[in-house]
Amino acid sequence: MLSLSFTPLLPWPAIAVLGVIVVVLAVFAVLARGRTALLRVLVLALVLAALTNPALVREDREPVKDVAAIVVDRSGSQALGDRPQMTDAVRAELQRRFGALTDIEPRFIDVPDSKDGDDGTKLFTALSQALADVPPERLAGIVMLTDGVVHDIPASLAQLGIKAPLHVLVTGHPDERDRQIKLLEAPRFGIVGKDLTIRAEVMERGGTGHAVVTVRRDGEEIGRRDVATDKPFSLNLRIEHGGPNVVEIEVEPLPGELTTVNNRAVLPIEGIREKLRVLLVSGEPHQGERTWRNLLKSDANVDLVHFTILRPPEKQDGTPISELSLIAFPTRELFVQKIKDFDLIIFDRYANQSVLPQAYFDNIVRYVREGGALLIAAGPEFAGPASLARTRLAGILPGDPDGRVVEKPYKATPTQVGQRHPVTRALPGSDANPPAWGDWLRIVEARTRPGIQPILSGAEGLPLLALSREDKGRVALLLSDHAWLWARGYQEGGPYLDLLRRLGHWLMKEPALEEEALRAQTTGRGREVRVERQTMADQAEPVTVTGPTGKVTTLTLKPGEPGLFTATFDAETLGLHTLRSGNLVAFVSVGPANPRELADVFSDTDRLKAVADGSSGSVRRVAEAGGGIQVPRLALVRGGRLAGSDWIGFRPSDSANIRGVEVYPLALGLAALAALAAALLAMWLVEGRRGRAA
C-alpha cells in the first residue's frame, strides 16, 4: 500500500507562519510584477514544501480479522425455566453463523455466578476483562446473550472505551409468572419461651391474589394460613429452645411458575435464655456443695436460688426458730407456685426428711414431663431409706439404688456409649487409658432402668452418670458426690467444668449436645459445605441434599470421632440447601441469604435498551410465539444502520499488521535539488527576458 507522509524539519506552527508569509509575498509580487512573479512564488512554494519533508511510504500490510465478542450469561437467573436450553441453542447457532464470516473472529465469553453470589450478574465487567488484549478499532461488535437481569450496566459503552455496536439477545418469555416470599422483619434473636413477630410478604406476577403459607420450625410443621398476596402479613412464633431455631416459611407454588427456588425463606433465630433460673437444693453441708455453687454463680447468665437443709424438721433441741437459718425454706412457693419458673432443679445430696410432701414430688414429676430438667447429685443418702428413689420421683429417675455404697478409689471412665455421647465425648484427658484424671473415692451402687445405658462408669464398672428423657423433659443421675475432688485438684484433678457445664447444657436442650443431630455449614473455601451427623448408632444413614433448583444428591458419611460422621460437598448453585437424614433436617445457605439473582427473576428487554441504542445496536427476544427460537442474521456493514428486523450488523475496521515499510523522500537528495535549481533558472530566464524587452 502506497501513501504520502510528512516529517517536517520545523514544527508545524513555524511552517504555518512561513506559509502565511509566502502567501503575502506572492500576492504583492503578482500585483507588482504580474504573472512573471508566479515563478518566484513557485520557488518559495518548493522551499516551503521541502521543509515539510514529504515522502512516499510503501507498507507491506497483512490483514487481520476483526473481533466480535459474544457474552453468554450463565448466572443463576439464567438457570430458570427453559432459559438454559434456549441459551445453549442460540449459542450454538451463533457459533455456526460466525464460522461463515471469514473476516470476523468470534470470542465467546461465558460469565458464571460471582463467587460470593451477592454481586449479581456483571457482564460488562467480564467483557472489559476479556477484551483487554484487543485494540478498540478491531472490535467489530458485541452480542450479549442474557435474560436482561444485569447489575453492572454503564451509562454508555464509551465509558468502557468501546465504540462497537451492542446487540442484546434476550432469553425467557414476556408472559412469565412467578411467586416469591419476602421477609420484611426477620429477627435474628429471640428469648426462649417467649413469642416474637415475623413480618413477610408474598409477591407474585400472574397469580391469583391469595396463597397458602406453611410455617415450619426445625423441620416440623407448626401452622399454615391463607394470606393475600402483595400485602404484608405477620406471624407470631414461640422460641422453644436455646441455640438455632430454624424457621421456614414456604408459599405454595403457582401452576407453571418460573421457579420455586424463591418460594421459601429460611430464618435461623438464635434462642437466648433471658436468665437461666436454677434451683439448687443441698440436703446438708458438705465438701461438694461449694463446687456446685461456685460453678453456677460464675456464669452471669445463671440466676441461682440455693437452699441448704441445715436441720431436719423433726429435730427438737430447743433452739429458737430465729436462729435455725437465715430464712425459712419456702417449699410451697418453690415447688407449687413458681416451679415452672425454673429451667433446672438440682438435688445435691438431698435426703427425704419430710421437708417436701409427696404431693410436691408429684409437681416435680409433672414439671419434668412438661419440659423441665432435673439433676440428682447423689451421695450415701441415695442408698438409704430416705433416698429420693423411694419417693414419687422413682418413675423418672434413670437408676434405682441397690443399697450399697462402694468406698474405694477409681477413675471415672466413659463407657462405650459415653465415648459417643456429646456430654462425655472427647473430655480433656479421656484419650488416655485409663483417663488422665484424679480418682474419685465413693460411688453409690445402682441399676439403670431398661433401655438406659450409663455414659460414665466408676468402681467395679458400676454406673456413675446416667441420662434419660421423660416426655418433653430430661433427667440426669450422678451417682457420686466426689466431683469436688477434681475441682480441688486432687491427683491433678479433672475436667469438672467441662463435664458439669455440658451436663447442664444437655439438660437445657442445647442443640450442640443432642445425641441425634444433623448440622451443616459452609467452610469458607468457595462453595464447600461440611456436613456433620451426630448419632449414637454404629452407622449413620446417608444424607440427601436438595439444592435450590430441586436437584437431589446423596452423601455418604465417613466416621470421624466416636459418634460423629462427616462429609463435604461443593454446592453447584448458590442458595438454600436442605439436608435430611431420617427424620432430621438441616439447612445451609451457600452465598448470601437473599441473592440479587433471585430478587427479580423476570427476563427484561428494557434494562439494556438505552446502552444498546446509544451504540447503534439493538435489543430483541429470541423466543418466538410458537415456542421456537429466532436467531438474527449476521451482516458486515460499513455505513448506515447496524440492525434490522431480522439481522444485526458488525462494523469492519480493515485493520492489518505492518510487516515492512519502505520510505521514498521527495524533498531531499539530487532530485529535490534539481527541481529547485530548475525553478530558479526558469525564474532568472523569464525575468531576464522581460528586462531586456523593457
Produce a short descriptive summary.
With 694 residues, this protein is an alpha/beta fold. It is built from twelve helices and 36 strands.
Secondary-structure-based class equals alpha/beta
List unreliable stretches of 5+ residues.
none
Q: Give the total of beta strands.
A: 36
Based on CA atoms alone, the radius of gyration comes out at 45 Å
Q: Characterize the main sheet.
A: 8 strands, mixed
Give the N-to-C terminal Cα separation.
53 Å
Strand numbers in spatial order across the main sheet: 16-15-17-18-24-23-22-20
Overall pLDDT confidence: 86
Q: How much β-strand is present in the residues?
A: 25-35%
- How many H/I helical runs? 12
Helix share bin: 10-25%
What's the shape?
elongated
Walk me through the structure:
- The protein is of the alpha/beta class.
- 20% of the residues lie in helices and 34% in strands.
- The protein has twelve helices and 36 strands.
- An eight-stranded mixed beta sheet has the order 16-15-17-18-24-23-22-20. Strands 4-3-5-6-33 form a five-stranded parallel beta sheet, with helices on both faces. Strands 8-14-13-10-11 form a five-stranded mixed beta sheet, with no helix packed on it.
- Strand 27 and strand 28 (552-555) form a beta hairpin.
- Helix 2 (38-51) packs antiparallel against helix 12 (669-693).
- The longest helix is centred in the C-terminal third of the chain and has 25 residues, at 669-693.
- It is elongated and about 160 Å long.
- The mean pLDDT is 86.
